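TICKET: design request
STATUS: open
ATTACHED STRUCTURE:
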């Protein structure tokens, strides 16, 4: 254990239900300075078109993340010993002004990126990923590995509104934040508004892997292709909790039957090994629709899986600098 890095509170000293709720029971840092990975909440759902409530996601995921322990049981990864990690709190948001909300999120995320930390955030609805990408990809487009039930590449809602949780990746491609030929969307399913709804995304070069194809091919084959699409260039990972079947994650704004099991989701994230991850998020956890905290627990679990992959990446780079 690297004692120079922040460490989680030991449950043998203070029980999990006691003390301040932070991501993974990590200490709170006022800024991201000196951190390798910044855990951050984005409590905003101004882009939600149906069932609101994801603004409460970060708080509940923090609570459920107290169940995460120090060591990954499969890989043996000790993320807090190989990377300096802390909870940097929630970004400033505006719940009554969508455009200002996007601006505030971008500004707060830009400060984390400027400090040199890799952000691992919890939303919030999926529109929060757009201002995050504006901060992360302002100098060059990045790739995207996207776990979701929905493509989120629609154009307009309710007349001429370009900003909802169904449009972030269309806007990100148009703004040059994402390289569409390095985007893979996994788990897409459910009824759609129009027969050609996904045509625009495919025309840009986005690889859409529908749930039916995922079932036919399996986790390893799909993730092998995802890694090939991402290549060795900077890539963002976004995990919408509605990619998981609502029998295991009911607390979300737009549930779709026929999704991943939590076990499949964990396996897929573990197979991100080797991807150059410059940021990641877990979004659309909506506690008002949850049962016994099971969706928030699923979100916290996926966050821990992502943390372990990113921490190994940080550790490998640190060792390379030391030995080089």
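STATUS: resolved
RESOLUTION: sequence designed for all positions
ATTACHED SEQUENCE:
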């Amino acid at each position: 254990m690297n004692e120079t890095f922040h460490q989680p509170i030991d449950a043998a000293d203070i029980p999990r239900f006691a003390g301040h709720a932070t991501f993974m029971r990590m200490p709170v840092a006022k800024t991201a300075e000196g951190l390798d990975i910044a855990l951050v909440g984005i409590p905003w759902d101004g882009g939600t078109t149906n069932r609101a409530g994801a603004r409460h996601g970060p708080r509940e995921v923090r609570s459920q993340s107290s169940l995460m322990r120090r060591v990954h049981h499969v890989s043996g990864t000790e993320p807090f010993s190989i990377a300096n990690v802390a909870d940097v709190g929630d970004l400033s948001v505006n719940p009554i002004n969508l455009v200002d909300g996007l601006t505030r999120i971008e500004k707060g995320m830009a400060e984390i990126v400027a400090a040199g930390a890799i952000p691992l955030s919890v939303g919030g609805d999926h529109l929060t990923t757009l201002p995050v990408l504006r901060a992360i990809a302002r100098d060059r487009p990045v790739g995207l590995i996207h776990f979701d039930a929905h493509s989120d590449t629609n154009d307009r809602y309710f007349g001429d509104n370009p900003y909802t949780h169904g449009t972030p990746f269309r806007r990100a491609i148009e703004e040059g934040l994402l390289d569409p030929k390095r985007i893979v969307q996994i788990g897409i399913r459910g009824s759609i508004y129009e027969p050609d709804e996904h045509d625009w995304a495919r025309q840009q070069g986005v690889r859409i892997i529908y749930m039916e194809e995922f079932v036919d091919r399996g986790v390893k084959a799909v993730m092998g292709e995802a890694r090939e699409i991402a290549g060795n260039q900077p890539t963002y990972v976004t995990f919408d909790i509605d990619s998981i079947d609502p029998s295991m994650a009911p607390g979300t704004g737009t549930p779709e039957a026929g999704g991943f099991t939590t076990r499949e989701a964990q396996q897929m994230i573990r197979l991100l090994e080797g991807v150059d991850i410059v940021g990641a998020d877990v979004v659309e956890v909506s506690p008002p629709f949850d049962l016994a905290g099971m969706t928030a627990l699923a979100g916290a679990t996926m966050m821990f899986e992502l943390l372990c992959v990113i921490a190994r990446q940080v550790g490998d780079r640190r060792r390379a600098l030391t030995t080089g």
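CLOSING REMARK: The domain at 23-323 is CATH 3.40.800.10 (Arginase; Chain A). The mean pLDDT is 95.
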